[in-house]
Specification:
alpha/beta; Rossmann fold; eight-stranded mixed sheet; two-stranded antiparallel ribbon
């Protein structure tokens, strides 16, 4: 699997990835992917990603969605994985090689600078539009890379919708408030709720949209590490933006305190609301 370079022009919709590109962030992405895999697999199957299709995965990161898609399209299909982070693409290359996956090609570029000279049967993306300055322009570019009646399937969080835990979990709620306050100032925090309209404005017919979230619980849940590591990653930005509560949080003990709270309360802990949407281009 070769990593190709493509730098035809700089995409005007590009914006710095809030979460960064460090190794710690790549681990966080892998942890998140382990929780979200069932949701994404349902989306891809529901969107009819199937054997023999040629799929584009934008903002692929370390490749969890790419590898899911590669399994669905099989050896007669292919996945082209696009990301700006060469370290993430190298991780994907190594993971694919270790699992014997040979139908993924990696392209290091901004998505709007990607001009492959061919059309795809489907384009997929998870948690990418939230980090772009112009999500509609990105979706329109993706539409233009699709065959007639080609599919688009995207998943995006909505950080303005916070499902409550039961019983209440004050520490978890504080963490979510800081995260949501930061994302509200830094990115499109309500991008999930906007997906349906974005799809229709971008030229896709009859979007199929739904919202869901995992509910974890107990001291051994991976959600405690994920929540703590997500906040750790964005905390400098949250403090710079003067998000309420960001200056006071003790990040180094946060994961353990979240586990203790989960043990004491026995609460069901909802994750962030995630919207899934798929449709065919007009």
């Amino acid at each position: 699997m070769e990593i190709l370079a493509n730098s035809a022009y700089v995409c005007e919709t590009a914006t710095p990835y809030v979460m960064g590109h460090a190794n710690r962030e790549r681990r966080r992405l892998a942890l998140q992917a382990s929780i979200l895999r069932p949701f994404t697999e349902r989306l891809l199957r529901g969107a009819s990603i199937a054997s023999g299709m040629h799929v584009l995965d934008i903002g692929c990161g370390v490749g969890d969605v790419s590898m899911l898609a590669a399994g669905l399209v099989g050896r007669h299909g292919s996945v082209t994985s696009v990301d700006v982070d060469p370290g993430a693409l190298e991780t994907l290359r190594q993971r694919a090689a270790a699992e014997g996956i040979a139908n993924i090609a990696c392209v290091q570029t901004d998505v709007c600078a990607f001009l492959p000279g061919r059309l795809f049967d489907a384009v997929v993306g998870r948690h990418i539009l939230i980090h772009t300055s112009d999500p509609l322009a990105v979706l329109k570019h993706c539409r233009d890379l699709l065959q007639p009646r080609g599919l688009a399937a995207f998943q995006e969080y909505d950080f303005q919708l916070i499902p409550p835990s039961y019983p209440s979990t004050p520490l978890r709620d504080r963490v979510f408030a800081i995260m949501n306050g930061c994302f509200a100032k830094a990115v499109h925090a309500n991008i999930g709720s906007r997906l349906f309209r974005l799809f229709t404005e971008a030229g896709f017919a009859h979007p199929d949209c739904r919202v869901e979230f995992p509910v974890e619980g107990g001291p051994d849940s991976p959600c405690h590490e994920l929540l703590a590591e997500t906040l750790r990653t964005i905390l400098p930005r949250a403090r710079a933006l003067n998000v309420p509560g960001a200056a006071e949080i003790d990040i180094d003990t946060l994961e353990q305190r979240l586990r203790e709270e989960a043990t004491i309360t026995g609460a069901g802990l909802p994750g962030s609301m995630m919207f899934s949407c798929f449709a065919r281009r007009l």
